[in-house]
Each structure stands twice: as structure tokens, then as C-alpha cells.
Design brief:
Elements (H helix, E strand, L loop, with lengths): L2 H8 L4 H8 L3 H8 L7 H11 L3 H31 L4 H23 L3 H35 L1
Length: about 150
């Protein structure tokens, strides 16, 4: 659970009890609590001031969750990559490793700019595209093998 949500619920507050005095929409607070979007430092400070706590108390759990989400994405991507490409030769594996390194560097840059959600979606699309290409080429190879066996 997000720190803000647990703090808010622990004090018996509803979203509107924070939204009204801080002039932050209920939707923005709800989206932040549910991890659907980030929140500006200014708005976090308004909420922290209203609750009489530090911004760190609000963001600590969110940061941990973001790190876990990042690790999960990387682990899933690595598992997919190695499962799909385990039969490739050394040169192909080296190429894949280079691509993964480039992706991780790009991700770190996106993280600095707080654009990880967009980056994550783009990486997912590339992985899915890679899966589609792999399936397409496997079909071609199978058909060529079948045609070769007929002759």
C-alpha cells in the first residue's frame, strides 16, 4: 500500500479531506495513491504540510514500490529474452546483450527525466515486436525445411 494512502486511512481521512484544503484534485491524489501517476514536488509538499509530515514519509514506500516494479520488469524481460533466444549462437547472444545494455542505459536516462512509464510501454512494444518477428522467421524456417524434405 502507498504511504500516503496508509497515512490517510490511518487518520480516518477521505480523499476529499486532503483534496479540498490543498486544492489538489481527488483524481490526482487517487492516481498517485494507486501508483497510476506521479505527483509534482509542489503538490507532495502541500499534502505533507497539511498532514504535518515530511515529503519523504509520503514517498518512501512509493520509491520502494517503483524499484520493485523496475526490478520485476527487468527480470521478466530477461527471462523472455533468454527463453526466446536460448538456441541462438554466441554472436546473436552478444548482439542481444548489447541491446539489453542499451535499453538499460536508455531506461536510466528516462528515469532521470521521470518518463519511465512511457519508456516501459515502448520497451514492451519492442519485446512484443521481437516475439512477432521471431515467430514469423521460425515459420519461414519450418516451411523451408518442409519444402526441402519434399524434394
Amino acid at each position: 500500500m502507498n504511504s500516503l494512502k496508509s497515512i490517510r486511512e490511518g487518520r480516518g481521512l477521505k480523499l476529499k479531506h486532503i483534496a479540498e484544503p490543498t486544492k489538489i484534485s481527488i483524481g490526482a491524489i487517487s492516481n498517485y495513491e494507486n501508483g497510476n501517476s506521479g505527483m509534482s514536488e509542489g503538490n507532495l509538499q502541500k499534502i505533507a504540510n497539511f498532514l504535518g509530515i515530511s515529503v519523504d514519509e509520503i514517498t518512501t514506500t512509493q520509491k520502494r514500490r517503483d524499484i520493485e516494479k523496475d526490478k520485476e520488469l527487468v527480470n521478466d524481460s530477461m527471462r523472455i529474452a533468454f527463453d526466446l533466444y536460448k538456441d541462438l549462437d554466441k554472436e546473436d547472444m552478444f548482439t542481444i546483450a548489447e541491446n539489453l545494455y542499451e535499453i538499460s542505459c536508455d531506461y536510466q536516462e528516462a528515469k532521470k527525466e521521470k518518463k519511465t512509464e512511457k519508456f516501459t510501454e515502448e520497451v514492451k512494444k519492442k519485446i512484443l515486436l521481437g516475439l512477432a518477428y521471431k515467430g514469423f522467421f521460425e515459420e519461414i524456417i519450418i516451411k523451408e525445411q518442409e519444402n526441402g524434405n519434399e524434394n
